């Protein structure tokens, strides 16, 4: 069972927060998934989104917007929210980034 992390951004200034997880066993990048499960609006009506720069595994940095990162919560112009390889660091809705995906580029999963 994955360990959830919780944080609160207290300012409007863009700031990345480092979240650390130490696994007792080796994990390949293909088993890393960053999930967003708190979509909605703040009490002041601001749309909540999650912006992920990437993950570091064993000293190697993997960008969230890499061509092999599968997303289920990214909204795309003229498409809307649809699972795919969107090369974005944003999760606009509840969903996840799956790193080192084997999904076929250009194919939408609905």
Notes on the structure:
With 110 residues, the protein is mainly beta. Helices cover 0% and strands 27% of the residues. The protein is built from no helices and eleven strands. The strands form five sheets. The chain has a three-stranded antiparallel beta sheet, with no helix packed on it. Strands 2-3 form a two-stranded antiparallel ribbon. The radius of gyration is 14 Å and the shape is globular. The two termini are 26 Å apart.
- In percent, how helical is the residue content? under 10%
- What is the residue-mean pLDDT, rounded to a whole number? 84
Would you identify the regions where 5 or more consecutive residues have pLDDT less than 50? none
The description of the largest β-sheet is: 3 strands, antiparallel
Shape: globular
Query: What is the count of DSSP helices, taking H or I runs of 4+ residues?
Result: 0
Question: Structural class, judged by helices and strands?
Answer: mainly beta
The counted number of beta strands is 11
């Amino acid at each position: 069972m994955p360990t959830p992390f919780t944080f609160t951004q207290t300012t409007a200034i863009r700031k990345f927060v480092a979240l650390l997880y130490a696994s007792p066993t080796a994990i390949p990048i293909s088993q890393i998934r960053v999930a967003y499960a708190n979509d909605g609006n703040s009490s002041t009506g601001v749309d909540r989104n999650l912006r992920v720069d990437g993950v570091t595994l064993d000293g190697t940095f993997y960008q969230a917007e890499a061509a092999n990162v599968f997303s289920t919560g990214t909204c795309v112009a003229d498409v809307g929210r649809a699972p795919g390889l969107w090369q974005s660091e944003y999760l606009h809705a509840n969903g996840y980034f799956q790193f080192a995906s084997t999904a076929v580029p250009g194919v939408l999963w609905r």
